[in-house]
Amino acid sequence: MPDALKLLTTRRSFKAVDLAGPGPSAAEIDSLLTVASRVPDHGKLTPWRFIVFEGEARRAAGAAIATAFKAKYPDAKPEQVAAEGERLMRAPLVIAVVSRAAPHVKIPEWEQVLSAGAAAMNLVLAAHALGYGASWITEWYAYDRGVLDALGLKPHERIAGFVHIGKPPGPPEDRPRPPLDEIATRFSA
Ligand SMILES: Cc1cc2nc3c(=O)[nH]c(=O)nc-3n(C[C@H](O)[C@H](O)[C@H](O)COP(=O)(O)O)c2cc1C
């Protein structure tokens, strides 16, 4: 099987907490972002952007998550709030894929959102190709306005995913995949 197809058929997600350091180098992060930005994009609008979280910046973003959690659940125990602050510390590198989809005279917003999904998927695949594992997650804080403001998202921007990237613990166990005869049909007149 050609290498590229083997990569595509062996990719699988890891738990964020299982992704260890060392994370990708600066040059590898450039490769990840280059591949992530090479996606179909109707109208060439670039309807997505990326935010890279590394090192202590992950903790600073985590503080915003903890603050939002405390505001949502004022009765939360201190250890629960502290655990929320560690959300982005699970993997050495987290890249947020931000959708910038907006109304446009010609290009439907839906297509712009799909392009952000393609960017996130390319990012996950590029990580796999470089020998890293990835976890594309959103969790509650992707939808919390306080967190989005703290991360610098404009009102119309949305998180397509926080892609966690790091060294996987070993080959992943796969999960059952949908049988092709249940998801694909051949159109006949
Ligand atoms: C937009 C999006 C958001 C996701 N958010 C979460 C999440 O918050 N938590 C989670 O456990 N999985 C989430 N997932 C699912 C995982 O990324 C992954 O697909 C799942 O664990 C199955 O693993 P697989 O990629 O090996 O099929 C999300 C997937 C997508 C496409």
What does this structure look like?
The chain has a single domain (12-167), classed as NADH Oxidase, CATH 3.40.109. Helix content is 40%, strand content 15%. The radius of gyration is 18 Å and the shape is globular. The chain is built from seven helices and four strands. By secondary structure, it is α+β, with helices and mostly antiparallel strands. The longest helix is centred in the middle third of the chain and has 21 residues, at 109-129. Flavin mononucleotide (FMN) binds at residues 12-13, 136-139, 161, 175. Flavin mononucleotide binds next to β3.
Bound molecules: flavin mononucleotide
CATH structural class: Alpha Beta
Full CATH superfamily name: NADH Oxidase
Helix count? 7
Oligomer: single chain
Shape: globular
Give me the CATH architecture, please.
3-Layer(aba) Sandwich
Q: What structural class should be given to the helix and strand makeup?
A: alpha+beta
**Count of DSSP strands:** 4
Order of neighbouring strands in the sheet with most strands:
1-2-4-3
Share of helical residues: 40-55%
Strand/helix succession: HHEHHEHEHEH
Ranges where pLDDT stays below 50 over 5 or more residues in a row are none
Radius of gyration: 18 Å
